[in-house]
Structures are given as C-alpha cells and as structure tokens.
histidine kinase
Amino acid sequence: MKASKHRFSLAGKLALLLFASMLVAVGAACLLAWWLDSLMLGACVALALCAVLAPTLASRYLAPQLSLFRALSGSVASFRDGDFSFSLARRSNDELDDLVDAHNELGSVLREERQSLFQRELLLDTVVQNTPTSLLLTEPRGAIVYGNLAARQLFNDGRKVEGLRFAQLMERTPAPLREALGEGRDRLFTFEYAGLEETYHLARREFHLNGRVHTLFLFKRLTAELNRQEVATWKKVIRVISHELNNSLAPITSLAHSGAELLRREDHGKLGRIFDTIEERARHLHGFLRGYSSVAKLPVPEPETVDWDRFLTRLQQHYAFRQEFDPPSAPARFDPAQIEQALINVLKNAHESGSAPEQVTLSVRQIGQLVRVDVNDRGPGMSDTVLANALVPFYSTKRTGSGLGLALAREIAEAHGGRISLANREGGGLCVSLVLPA
C-alpha cells in the first residue's frame, strides 16, 4: 500500500464530514438561541440538526464507495467465471484507490496467465493431435473423453471418437488388438490394417483427473522400426551362426580328409584322435544350436504362487550365494522354472567373473508392486561397450561363451512383464537386477 501518495485518507474524510455536520448544527443552534433567547431550545435544535445532517451527509459521501464495492463484487464474480476483461477507474486520493489498483493489477496478471496458458494448451494440443501415436483417454465408466487424429484414423475412419464407449469401439477392431487389450499389460501385437500387416505397441496408464481415475491408451506404430531392427538382428544371427558353423565344420572337413588319407595308407593308429576331435566339434555345434533354440522357443510363462525361502534354497543347490538379508515374507507369483533358469545364468556369470565365491550375494526386496532380485559380485565389472551389448543374444566376451545366458534371462524377465538391468558397483564388481511384478 502506498498511503503516502494520498492527500486525504478515508478516515480523515469521515472525520471532516462529522466535524462539518457538527459545525453546521452548532452554528444553527447558536443563531436560534440568540433569536429565541433560549439556550435549551437551541441545544435541542442543534441535536436534531446533527441527527438529520450526519446520516444525510454520510449517505451522500458513502454512495460512491458503495457503488465501488458493488462494482468490485461484480468484477470478482466475473473473475470467478473466467472473464478477466474488467477493470475499474477511480481517483479519490484515498486508501480505496490502492484496492482498485490491486484489483486492476490482478485482472491484468490473470489475463496474461490465461493467454499464456491458452498458448501452452494450443501448443500441447497441436503436438498431441499430430503425433503418430494413437491416444485414447477414457473416464471411469468407459466413455472416451479424448482421442487424437491418429486414434480417429485408426479406430473410426477419421471421425471423432469422443463420447463413444471404449468397449463398443474396440468390438469393431481386429482380434489381435482385442486380445492385446484383454491381457491387461503392455505388449506388442500385429494385425492387418489398410491391406498391410502392421505392428503396434500397446501401453496403458491410469491417473487421477478431476478427482476420478482415467485410463490413457497409447497405440504406437512400430512396423518400420521393427523391420529395420529385424533385418539388423537377422544379419547378426547369420554372422554368428556362420562363425560357429565354420569353427566346427572347417576342422571336421580337414579331419575327414586326413582320416581318408590315413585309411588309404592303412595308418590306423591316428584315426582315434581324429574321430575324438570330430566328436568334440560336433558336440560343441549341437550345444550351440540347442542354446539358440532355447532362446527362439521360450514357452509362455506359467505363473504360480512361489515361497521365497523354498525357492532360494533350491537355487542354492545350483550355484552358491550369500543372502544379504531375509526375503519378503509375502509369496510371489511367477513361473519358478523359468525364473530359476534366469537366475542360474546370472549366478553362473557371477562365479565366472573372477569374484571370490563368498562375495557373490543375492538379495530379494519388495518395492511397492514390484519385486527386485539383485545378484552382486566383486569381479572386474564391465566396460561401457560390454554393458551396452551384454543382453544382446550371441554377444559374449568369453572365448567359449555362447552369449545366450543373459539374453535368455532377459527374455524370461520380459515375458513375465519385468526387466533386467546391469550396472557396475562402487569398489568393483557387477550388479545384475531382475525386476518382476509382485
């Protein structure tokens, strides 16, 4: 408040008004008392004049203030309704001017904020409407409250989808899409659209909007990207398989030729070693193909309720580890055979890392709706390049490694709706984290 700028304060004006009314009343009383020669009668007239003049003058003075208050009340009601265009004009050199100035400044700030918010909403709507990802927002009863252009094109031939029932709209979609929705989790699915086979990723998220739970469905088209990734993967698979086949077939071919030459010379003494080497290379090739098949033909998980104590006791029989603390008392739900195989692969790597056996640890923690299993070692850890490729099938830094252990663990984790991650530890070593739905 800037009271120093006022010539007259509001309190001063009221005091001056009362003083003026009293002065008029006293003057009139003195004249009457002199004229009528009666002091008592003059005093009574003075009181009567004060009683009449004070309210009249106060009413005339307060009328502009009351009008201002009514204008302020109407303007505040307009602000509440979202209309910030009102401003007031008043110059009376009193404290109410500060109130008017504050009101006008508030209106100006609200107008600027609304304009800025409108610009941001316009930008956001433009981005959302033109994104290639199809977005559908549904309210708790299943009605669609928002759909962008991609969603309209994908589900309703370009027509608006707002107001339609989500379930009824999905009934007109291909069966693979309905099956993906029925699983209740994020996943990829493929169906025919516009005469072409398209692959989409479905994701759903729930959040509170205006006090109610809404669901956002995102359908992202991944066909082109997956095609590029598929080609790159096939090239890598062909290179790896070719490498392994050549490593085995080349010595087998050479040994077969040598064996034929020894038979021709009737030198049978060295044939045993040749056959042993051929058998060893054939066994290695068979093991490689079996490992590849385990990744390519991973069965669908069959979840069941699993007690952590019994599960970890059984896991200890394969590879020893030290438990850092007690596992959760609540049972988990997953395919025990597959998760056991994933953890066996991780523990095997930990023991082969060069870490002391007693420094291989395993811990199980429940974090909200997730369960996290950490396997730690004190080996040399991994370089950034190895960390980036360790989960890729057939990638291995070991001379005799197949590169399938961690890749298979990743496939198992993702088939359960979870994930696996690797990170170097402070002080040396590696931490492999397997995160699963609780």
